[in-house]
Amino acid sequence: MTAFHEVLFRLKLTFGATGGPERRTEIVTLGSGREERNTPWAHARRRYDVGGAVSVLDDLHELIAFFEARRGRLHGFRFRDFADWRSGAPSAAPAASDQAIGAGNGAQTAFQLIKAYGEGADAYQRPIRKPVSGSVLMAVNGVALSPSGYAVDHATGLVTLVSAPAAGHAVTAGYAFDTPVRFDSDRLEASLDAFGAGRLIQIALIELTL
Questions:
Q1: Which of 32, 100, 107, 189 qualifies as a FRET site for 127, CA 20 to 30 Å off?
Q2: What are the phi and psi torsion angles at 148 (to 5°)?
Q3: What is the pTM assigned to this prediction?
């Protein structure tokens, strides 16, 4: 049975990783030379390579243990992408006003955390499924809520308010988050360069759609 393990890939092994979002675009060139472009993906999918972050045998040993505990590609886990891990800029502490996640209607109390990329009608809304525990800040109509005024499901990114916001009142949030990923191979391939040092040729991670 597959599962998601709510464990964070060791931060030390994250530094030196490469990667980012991937899109899939299908392009058909017509006889006139014009193109028709479409995408079957509603959301981007991020890929990472963490092989470059491993430089000593102790790190290699720890990574092998983590890989084995996940059973290779079988189980997902949390990965912190330091280029994109907060509701605002990576260098700025989250604020309750960072992201608009909904509007009140007088009855709704549950809101999904999202992050907008771009502005206006062209903005992409990314669901945030793995917020960091203790990081979520909420506000309604510009007024910050007490932590006792809402509950956060850190496994899904769903926030439930104690009281339903009034109709038209903006619901905003700030948070830190992890990216859900799995290993993209059932095999680890390592090279022992010298005593006390090791190097992974490649170890790929791929984002999960949850």
A1: 107
A2: -75, -10
A3: 0.92
